[in-house]
TrEMBL record:
Residues 112-308 form the Nucleotidyltransferase-like domain. Pfam families: NTP_transf_8. This is Nucleotidyltransferase-like domain-containing protein. It comes from the Bacteria. It comes from Ferrimonas marina.
Length: 332
């Protein structure tokens, strides 16, 4: 069901992750060099102003040797930051060839672009479904069998309690715009008011989902706030257990060999949810078989490659006892 990484693959992965960590750490320093500094005349004197997009320009004082030095220092720091960012990006692209050569480039490129678009706007999300396996195998240092990973769609879970935050951070307050930043060919799959799925010209599909609520007769904030021609995350009652489980983050590599951060659910929650849906009478036989196979493969990966994973108690609290007791049966 999976193969552990060999020595060369493991070394390539570690080197790529270390490089990506340097790149991410460098990006965190961007606020110190964001915007620009310029002189502005007022009352016969010049004043130094710091301008940052979305904010009111701030005066840093009248022109003097001190403010001139401040401007020079800022511009030098900004140039150095830009130069290092470009250098790190070039190195990541060079190292991507080694990632591809070692078969670590697993996550579909379109899926990776969607995740980067979500992260660019700081939108809280979690990947669920088949694509979550890419995060798990990466954390475990393994490669899962191809048939287990085969899918043409990405399931993105939004927490209904964060709906206003999700909407406010989306470009022009539209969820579809997030996808169109990743691939401009994304369109709603149907023209329905409550359509939750979009597809690109390539055929790749993205589904937005959310957990159910106590009173299912009432509209969600997504349904209240989003336009009728936008995507509306579909509700699923069983996702309330998933959303209550711990978060899980790992770095995977897309088809080009470039790293991408993946936020998903705890892999034990993945196993429990897959086992649950595989027993539902309205689930198609084909999907039930796949659900069971993915749950079994993930349980094996957890037991053999991720035995030190913390937080088991939180999983048991998130799921009903009838489901969580299966972790004991699986020795997880």
């Amino acid at each position: 069901m999976y193969l552990p990484l060999n020595e060369e693959q493991a070394k390539t992965r570690v080197d790529a992750l270390q490089l990506f960590e340097q790149y991410q750490a460098h990006l965190l320093r961007k606020p110190s060099v964001a915007g620009s500094m310029h002189w502005r005349k007022s009352g016969g004197h010049e004043y130094l102003y710091r301008a940052v997009s979305g904010r009111v320009a701030k005066s840093l004082g009248r022109r003097s040797a001190k403010t001139e030095a401040l401007k020079e220092q800022f511009e030098e720091g900004k140039a150095n930051w830009d130069s290092r960012k470009e250098s790190l990006e070039d190195t990541l692209k060079t190292h991507a060839a080694y990632v591809r050569a070692n078969g670590l480039n697993r996550l579909p490129v379109t899926a990776a672009r969607v995740l980067r678009a979500l992260q660019k706007h700081d939108i809280p999300y979690r990947v669920i479904g088949t694509n979550a396996l890419y995060a798990y195998e990466s954390r475990a240092g393994a490669l899962m069998d191809g048939p287990l990973l085969a899918t043409g769609d990405l399931d993105v879970l939004f927490d209904a309690r964060q709906s206003l935050q999700v909407i406010s951070k989306a470009p022009q307050n539209r969820l579809l715009n997030i996808l169109q930043q990743a691939d401009k060919t994304f369109v709603k799959r149907t023209s329905g008011r409550y359509e939750f799925s979009a597809s690109a010209d390539s055929g790749y599909q993205v589904d937005f989902v959310t957990q159910g609520q106590v009173n299912e007769m009432l509209p969600t904030e997504f349904e209240r706030q989003l336009d009728s021609d936008d995507l509306i995350p579909v509700r699923s009652a069983t996702l309330k257990w998933v959303i209550a489980s711990p978060r899980f983050t790992a770095t995977a590599f897309d088809g080009r060999g470039m790293p991408v951060t993946m936020h998903t659910i705890d892999p034990r929650a993945f196993v429990l949810h897959k086992l649950y849906v595989s027993k539902q009478p309205d689930r198609s036989p084909e999907k039930k078989i796949r659900d069971k196979a993915q749950a079994s493969a993930m349980a094996n990966l957890l037991a053999e490659q991720m035995p030190d994973l913390p937080g088991g108690r939180a999983i048991r609290k998130a799921f009903p006892a009838a489901q969580s007791q299966q972790l004991d049966e699986l020795d997880l």
